[in-house]
Amino acid sequence: MTNRDYSLSFTVAQSPDTVFAAIANVHGWWSQEISGGTEHVGDIFAYRYQDLHRCRIAVTEAAPGKRIVWHVLDNYFSFTRDETEWKGTDIVFDISDKDGVTEVTFTHRGLVPSYECFEACSQGWRMYVEGSLRDLIMTGKGRPNVGEAMTESERILAA
User: Fold this and answer.
1) Among 67, 66, 68, 49, which residue's Cα sits nearest to residue 58?
2) What is the tens place of the pLDDT at every residue in 36-90?
3) Where are the alpha helices (DSSP H) in the chain?
């Protein structure tokens, strides 16, 4: 099946509300190179990693303890022929209580095996979601990408 969206899941002992708060704390698990709001419907944030990856993302759903959905407005990859592969995709975090533990199901709708970035992106999501986000939820400390400082003009352009 070549059109399957990328998905992974894990469980933690923490409450669904704690999980939601951790996911919304994008600086704490994905990257410190985030500008803009990341918690409420209508928030738009920009992500940047060196000259390799930049994107603008809108929060389209935010149901505390249940679900967060992001929509990729713009995307740039320096390492793919189609620099915009993520554009128009949705990044979904479903949170549910399963027999006394909280299950997090992460789905990047539209990130499919036919994408040139699929292998690198799926490895990246595993590292950030199963690794850094899970650590943030369980211990209060994630492993976000520190990145490099943006100038004020770069922040304005990214927003």
Assistant:
1) 68
2) 999 999 999 999 988 899 999 999 999 999 999 999 999 999 999 998 899 999 9
3) 16-24, 26-29, 118-125, 134-139, 152-158
From the list 122, 118, 51, the residue with the least C-alpha distance to 85 is 118
Distance CA(106)–CA(92), nearest Å, equals: 6
Cα–Cα distances (Å) from 38 to 2, 60, 72, 156, in that order, read 31, 10, 13, 17
Indicate the SS3 state at residue 20.
Answer: helix
Q: In what order do the strands lie in the sheet with 101-109?
A: 6-12, 101-109, 90-98, 67-77, 53-63, 44-49, 34-36
Q: Where residue 3 falls among pLDDT bands split at 50, 70, 90?
A: low
Distance CA 61, CA 57 (A): 12
